[in-house]
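Submission sheet (multi-component)
Chains listed below:
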Amino acid sequence: MLPAGRTRSQHMGGAALAQTVLFVNTLLVLLPMVFMVLSSLKTTREIFQRPFSLPANLAWQNYSVVWDAAHFSLYFRNSVIVTVASMVLILVTSTLAAYALGRYQFRGNDLIYLYFLTGIMVPIRLAIIPLFILMRDLRLLDTYWSLILVYTASGLPSAIFILTGFFRTLPRDLDNAARIDGAGELSVLIRVMLPLVRPALAIVTVYNIIPIWNDFFFPLVFIHQDRLKTLPLGLTVFFGEFATNWALLFAGLTLAAAPVIGLYILMSQQFIKGLTAGAVKG
Amino acid sequence: MSFPGPRRFSYRVSQALWVAACLAPALMLFTIVVAYPIAGAMAYSLFRWDGIVRGGFVGLVNFQRLLTQYPYSVRMLTAFWHNVWTFALTMVIQNGLGLLFAMLLAGRTWGAKIYRAIFFMPVTLSLVIVGFLWQLFLNPVWGIVNKSLALIGLGGLARPWLGDVHTALIAITLVNAWRWVGFPTIVFLAGIQAIPDEYLEAARLDGAGPGPIFRRVILPLLAPQVNIIVILTFIGAFNWFELPYVMQGVTGEPNHATDVLGLLFYRSAFGAVDTGNPDVGIGSSIAVIMFTLILVVSSLGAIYLRRREVEL
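Outcome: structure written.
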């Protein structure tokens, strides 16, 4: 923005100041990550003696130790299974429900919609005691299902909100035309509607997948067997076990951060849009 | 379209069945895994509990115990003020910086798109990773924070940031801000970019400088974004759990200096050294209080937002 009445040099000075502030914050964000990666390739002695230098020899073996001895391969697999299963279930169940709410008129439509919406603001983790008892009674403690069910159910309100809004904007005649052509209800949904709501499905996916992948609270309560632990919970085990081997700790953190950061570099715009959905209009 | 009677009837029945089939999975899941447990969380606070076995109805006795019986009474107050302090500090530092960055990124700033992407990156990182990473950086003996201070001649400032009762809460709040600051930045930036250029142009033609333009034009028009960020910051601050747990342990070390409601809730629900065996009655009462706080503040925010939108 260039306010009127200011000289060109004043404006240049303002722009330089802005660039300085923005650049300093860029360093504040990126330097910790650079240090993390550099430290992960050093030995613990090196981290202690020369914290700011580049690694003398690249200690790649840190990574293989973390991957095998520290069970990271296992934690990764568990995180992938839980995240993918929850995400698929969220997409399928919320699309069906939003389709019914957004495209059909029936008694109770508004009421059911509002019922789902009450779940948006409620922090589900405050219900952890009843959830723990529920999972115990269903004999689901220490299973993937305890996590998958909670993530799916708590992901539904926002997903239904986003998708119902989207379904409502699609023209009325689309599905009727297909019905007159003799298409059944299911094929109207799959062939006509689904391709049109793909952008909304992408937003729902990003909005849910990152918090699910990163969640620590529910595994902490539900999962006790080491072989079922997800990555964030596995990290706490790993930090307890290798507390003084700093090089390994940095390697573990780098490994844990890599998938999300890698995806983020590839599609940061979609991440920003998806994760701020709800707080940013449009 | 006119269908013959019977066919039309069967069509309506099959359509009703189809709609019901679409709604059933989501309704069942949401009811069993969200609505019922939340209702349960409210109800549990009104019963006596023996470990995890429910006893008789006791009314508000659990709340009374929570507020008067040691150690809960003391811990509750400490934790509550820590949440309030975290909220205030986050509002000023994290959201203040977010607003500053958004202002600097608006308009035709060089590199705005890349800065935006970089600032938002930590938001995608797990809080467990963020917590452990900064725990290593803040290590009093070899962490790069103290080493950097020494390097620039400020070695006298070095201290065990996470182990000192005076700095621990501030330190983890700043780590939290490091992770989150990109979020308010994006929200404010979107708000600023939505302001029509004519408004700013008109203010400029009236001779307003950048200061008054910010205070009189931009800030009032950003009210919806500010409102959303205040609500989300409030919910986040009062639900705070991961970062204190990972960095300072379940009791909020040192000496409860970083104890917050989320940790206290977890300890009373699942048991810990300072609160003893699991006390579901106490845990549920804490949950009800947290829930009420969050609900009241977010409803007030929503009402305020709606009223503003009508005005505009």
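Remark: DSSP finds 14 helices and two strands in chain B.
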